[in-house]
Structure formats: structure tokens, C-alpha cells
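Reopening this one. Same input as before:
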Amino acid sequence: MKAFLIDLTKCVGCHDCQIGCKDEHCDQAWMPYAEAQPEVGQFWMKVKQFERGHAPHVKVTYMPTMCNHCENAPCEAAAKNGAVYRREDGLVLIDPAKAKGQREIMDACPYHAIYWNDALNIPQKCTGCAHLLDGDHPISVPRCVDNCHVDVITFGEEAELDLEGTEVLHPEYGTKPRVFYRGLPKKFIAGTVFDPDAEEIIEGALVTATGDAGTFTATTDSWGDFWLRDLPDAEWTVTIEHGGKKKSVAVSTVSEDQGLGDVALC
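Same output, byte for byte:
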């Protein structure tokens, strides 16, 4: 069974995968796999950008997203007359002819990876470039894979991919996605510790986050900065200690990453 592996630790946000998808599918129909993708309004491969934290402690995450070619595909269950089908290699395709007028196919996708083509009155999405896989083409992988110059996206037999430590998006949906991610962002708490009396940053301060989800530690660097990384979504007590001084603050990563800015250790 085919699967995709997307390594976010390598992604630089160049959008080459998105551009390659557009180049392959806009104004080009690859029947019976897909009608042409419109030039605007649809992104069968889309690079999402997330700004996390608060200035000056900010991280940017880039995340290529696409149809997950789910093993338990809700779109397939919602389709009539076999308009959505699974190939033997695991790719989930929408039959353009059979799917005409079936907006419920688009509505069924919990990942919002299916788009509606008003002009053709059909739902559309990533095909895994099935026409390249099946045809006699010099490119025998999806265009997003071929176009990525930093090897973020890998496509192949699931059994042959290195999936150790990877995750899928929203496993709670129960759809069994076939797109696996390495390096999905976890929450962080960051800040700059300084001595208000000396008007200097503090290097080597011990910073500890404690809570029901565990204990995490870091030390401030030569700029006075600390980064508590890969935190679960939870409530924390962050304690800063240095030179006999100690300060504790309550911080939550339930809804967002936290950049605390300048933290005075008195």
C-alpha cells in the first residue's frame, strides 16, 4: 500500500510542492483520474504557515497538507454509485463523471482537503498523481514529491518507509490516514530572563516547567533566552532559579505556544 511521509523538520516553506501540483493539474485534465484543477481556489497540495509564540520569541512552522488517502475514507462512504473508490495501491480517487453534483463528497472530508468546482459541478482533490504512476512517464512519483528540492516529501510502499516516530493528523477522526508526518509541532514556552537591578540578562538560569503532564527543564543561553520545547497541551508552573533567586509563574499551553518576553528575576 502506498503512503506519503512528510518531514516537517526539513520544510523551508518554499512552496515548491504546491507549485508543482498546480503546474501538473491546472488547465490539464488527466482522465479518468481527474478533470483539470482551476487556477484559483483549489490547492490539492497546500503549504500552511503557522506563526507560533509571541514576539520576540516566535517560531514559524510550514506544513504541506493534502488529501490523506484515508483507509477509512469518509468521502468514500458518503459517495453514491462508486463515485469515490480506493485503488489496489491505496490511493483514494474521485471519479469525475460519477461524482457530478455530489457535494456531500466534499462535505464529508474532516480535513477539508476536497474542493468544489462550480464550473464543472464536481468535487476535486489530490489524486496522488495516479496518471504519472500508471503511465509511461519519466516521472514516476507524484509531482509534489518530484518538485521538492529538500526531500521533505517521500512517497512509496508503506512497509519500505521509515515511519518510526511519525504521526498522522487528527488520529481521533478514526480515518486511518496514509499521510504520515515527522516533526509535527508541539507547544513551547520561551522567555528572556534578566536581573532588573544589574540591568543585565542572566545566563545559566535553570528553568523548570512542572505539571500533571510531566517535568521539562532548560537553561538560559548567552542571550538570557530559554526554550522549553515539545510540551504537551497542559497547564504549567514555570520556575526560574539563579544565584539564590527564584520566581514562579503560571503558564498554559492548552491553546497556544507561549513567548513570555522579558522575565525579571528579583
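So the earlier flakiness isn't reproducible anymore. For the record, The chain has a mean pLDDT of 96.
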